[in-house]
Amino acid sequence: MNKLFLVIVILSFSPMFAQQTDVEFTPNNSWLKAGLTAGIPVGDASDVSSFNLGLDLRGQYLFNPNIAVGIASGYSHFFGKDNFDDFGVVPLAGFFRYYFTPNGLFFGGDVGYGFLTNIDNNQGGLYVNPQIGYHNRDWNIYAFYQNTFAENDVDIQNVGVGVTYNIRFK
User: Fold this and answer.
1) Domain total of the chain
2) Contacts of 34 (CB under 8 A, 6+ apart)
3) Between residues 167 and 22, the one the model is more confident about
4) Distance (Å, whole) CA 55 – CA 33
5) Which domain holds residue 74?
6) Around Cβ 21, how many Cβ atoms within 10 Å?
7) For 50-83, how does the pLDDT look when each residue is reduced to its tens digit (9 = 90+)?
8) How deeply is 33 buried, as exposed, middle or buried, from its count of CB atoms within 10 A (0-12, 13-18, 19+)?
9) Is 24 part of any domain?
10) How many CB atoms lie within 10 A of CB 164?
Protein backbone atom coordinates (compact mmCIF):
# COMPACT_ATOMS: atom_id res chain seq x y z
CA MET A 1 0.00 0.00 0.00
CA ASN A 2 2.84 2.40 0.86
CA LYS A 3 4.51 1.80 -2.50
CA LEU A 4 1.23 2.44 -4.32
CA PHE A 5 0.85 5.75 -2.47
CA LEU A 6 4.42 6.71 -3.41
CA VAL A 7 3.76 6.01 -7.10
CA ILE A 8 0.58 8.13 -6.98
CA VAL A 9 2.44 11.06 -5.40
CA ILE A 10 5.28 10.91 -7.95
CA LEU A 11 2.82 10.77 -10.84
CA SER A 12 0.92 13.74 -9.45
CA PHE A 13 4.08 15.88 -9.74
CA SER A 14 4.64 14.90 -13.39
CA PRO A 15 1.92 17.18 -14.90
CA MET A 16 3.64 20.23 -13.41
CA PHE A 17 6.83 19.38 -15.28
CA ALA A 18 5.01 18.39 -18.48
CA GLN A 19 3.31 21.79 -18.73
CA GLN A 20 6.64 23.64 -18.55
CA THR A 21 8.09 23.04 -22.00
CA ASP A 22 10.60 25.90 -21.97
CA VAL A 23 12.19 25.45 -18.55
CA GLU A 24 15.38 27.44 -18.13
CA PHE A 25 17.51 27.02 -15.01
CA THR A 26 18.98 30.30 -13.75
CA PRO A 27 20.44 31.51 -10.43
CA ASN A 28 17.10 33.24 -9.83
CA ASN A 29 14.91 30.12 -10.11
CA SER A 30 17.03 27.08 -9.20
CA TRP A 31 19.67 26.19 -6.67
CA LEU A 32 21.00 23.54 -4.32
CA LYS A 33 20.25 23.63 -0.61
CA ALA A 34 22.70 22.02 1.82
CA GLY A 35 22.42 22.02 5.57
CA LEU A 36 22.13 20.32 8.94
CA THR A 37 19.24 19.06 11.06
CA ALA A 38 18.92 18.15 14.73
CA GLY A 39 15.97 16.42 16.32
CA ILE A 40 14.44 14.45 19.13
CA PRO A 41 12.93 11.02 18.39
CA VAL A 42 9.24 10.64 19.26
CA GLY A 43 6.92 7.66 19.36
CA ASP A 44 8.55 4.21 19.17
CA ALA A 45 11.87 5.71 18.08
CA SER A 46 12.21 7.47 21.45
CA ASP A 47 12.42 4.06 23.15
CA VAL A 48 15.64 3.18 21.30
CA SER A 49 17.21 6.55 20.43
CA SER A 50 18.05 9.66 22.43
CA PHE A 51 18.54 12.23 19.62
CA ASN A 52 19.41 12.53 15.96
CA LEU A 53 21.59 14.64 13.69
CA GLY A 54 21.38 14.81 9.95
CA LEU A 55 22.32 16.28 6.60
CA ASP A 56 19.73 17.90 4.34
CA LEU A 57 20.41 18.09 0.57
CA ARG A 58 17.94 19.49 -1.97
CA GLY A 59 17.73 20.60 -5.56
CA GLN A 60 15.02 23.23 -6.00
CA TYR A 61 13.25 24.76 -8.99
CA LEU A 62 11.13 27.88 -8.41
CA PHE A 63 8.10 27.95 -10.77
CA ASN A 64 7.19 31.46 -9.71
CA PRO A 65 8.07 33.64 -6.69
CA ASN A 66 5.83 31.51 -4.44
CA ILE A 67 5.93 27.86 -5.56
CA ALA A 68 8.95 25.55 -5.63
CA VAL A 69 9.42 21.83 -6.26
CA GLY A 70 12.47 19.63 -6.20
CA ILE A 71 14.27 16.53 -5.04
CA ALA A 72 15.32 15.97 -1.43
CA SER A 73 17.77 13.55 0.14
CA GLY A 74 20.30 13.45 2.95
CA TYR A 75 20.81 11.35 6.03
CA SER A 76 19.33 11.29 9.55
CA HIS A 77 21.47 9.48 12.13
CA PHE A 78 19.67 8.25 15.26
CA PHE A 79 21.95 7.72 18.24
CA GLY A 80 20.97 4.56 20.12
CA LYS A 81 20.46 4.60 23.85
CA ASP A 82 21.01 1.90 26.46
CA ASN A 83 21.89 -1.32 24.59
CA PHE A 84 20.49 -0.28 21.20
CA ASP A 85 22.63 0.33 18.12
CA ASP A 86 22.66 3.56 16.12
CA PHE A 87 20.56 3.53 12.95
CA GLY A 88 19.65 5.92 10.17
CA VAL A 89 17.24 7.03 7.47
CA VAL A 90 18.28 7.99 3.93
CA PRO A 91 15.33 9.71 2.24
CA LEU A 92 14.77 9.97 -1.48
CA ALA A 93 11.81 12.29 -1.93
CA GLY A 94 10.13 14.95 -3.97
CA PHE A 95 9.34 18.18 -2.20
CA PHE A 96 7.02 21.14 -2.49
CA ARG A 97 7.37 24.56 -0.88
CA TYR A 98 5.13 27.60 -0.76
CA TYR A 99 6.90 30.90 -0.06
CA PHE A 100 4.51 33.63 1.10
CA THR A 101 6.96 36.46 0.30
CA PRO A 102 10.51 36.74 -1.10
CA ASN A 103 11.80 36.88 2.50
CA GLY A 104 9.77 35.39 5.31
CA LEU A 105 7.50 32.48 6.13
CA PHE A 106 7.31 29.28 4.09
CA PHE A 107 5.69 25.90 4.46
CA GLY A 108 6.30 22.71 2.59
CA GLY A 109 6.84 19.02 2.75
CA ASP A 110 8.71 16.03 1.39
CA VAL A 111 7.11 12.76 0.27
CA GLY A 112 9.11 9.76 -0.85
CA TYR A 113 10.85 6.64 0.38
CA GLY A 114 13.05 6.40 3.48
CA PHE A 115 15.77 3.73 3.28
CA LEU A 116 16.76 2.42 6.72
CA THR A 117 20.34 1.67 7.74
CA ASN A 118 21.50 -0.74 10.46
CA ILE A 119 18.02 -2.20 11.08
CA ASP A 120 17.60 -5.93 10.49
CA ASN A 121 14.71 -7.24 8.37
CA ASN A 122 13.53 -3.78 7.35
CA GLN A 123 14.38 -1.91 4.16
CA GLY A 124 12.33 1.22 4.82
CA GLY A 125 9.02 2.71 3.75
CA LEU A 126 6.95 5.78 3.00
CA TYR A 127 8.75 8.96 4.11
CA VAL A 128 6.98 12.23 4.95
CA ASN A 129 8.54 15.44 6.27
CA PRO A 130 6.29 18.51 6.67
CA GLN A 131 8.12 21.79 7.44
CA ILE A 132 7.46 25.39 8.41
CA GLY A 133 10.15 28.02 8.55
CA TYR A 134 11.76 31.32 7.63
CA HIS A 135 13.79 31.99 4.48
CA ASN A 136 15.75 34.74 2.78
CA ARG A 137 17.86 34.74 -0.38
CA ASP A 138 20.64 32.66 1.18
CA TRP A 139 19.27 30.79 4.22
CA ASN A 140 16.35 28.62 5.32
CA ILE A 141 15.64 27.94 9.00
CA TYR A 142 12.77 25.55 9.71
CA ALA A 143 11.02 23.22 12.12
CA PHE A 144 10.03 19.76 10.92
CA TYR A 145 8.26 16.53 11.78
CA GLN A 146 9.76 13.51 10.04
CA ASN A 147 8.15 10.05 9.81
CA THR A 148 9.22 6.93 7.97
CA PHE A 149 6.41 4.37 7.86
CA ALA A 150 8.70 1.35 7.56
CA GLU A 151 7.92 -2.32 7.08
CA ASN A 152 6.82 -4.58 9.97
CA ASP A 153 4.84 -1.75 11.66
CA VAL A 154 7.95 0.27 12.48
CA ASP A 155 7.45 4.05 12.48
CA ILE A 156 10.57 6.15 12.88
CA GLN A 157 9.53 9.65 13.91
CA ASN A 158 11.34 12.74 15.09
CA VAL A 159 10.76 16.46 15.48
CA GLY A 160 13.48 19.03 15.13
CA VAL A 161 15.00 22.06 13.49
CA GLY A 162 17.11 22.49 10.40
CA VAL A 163 19.10 25.10 8.54
CA THR A 164 20.13 25.08 4.88
CA TYR A 165 22.25 27.38 2.76
CA ASN A 166 21.27 28.12 -0.86
CA ILE A 167 24.05 27.37 -3.35
CA ARG A 168 23.11 29.18 -6.57
CA PHE A 169 23.87 27.89 -10.06
CA LYS A 170 25.98 30.27 -12.15
Assistant:
1) 1
2) 55, 56, 57, 58, 164, 165, 167
3) 167
4) 10
5) 2-18+29-168
6) 6
7) 999 999 999 999 988 899 999 999 999 999 998 9
8) buried
9) no
10) 24
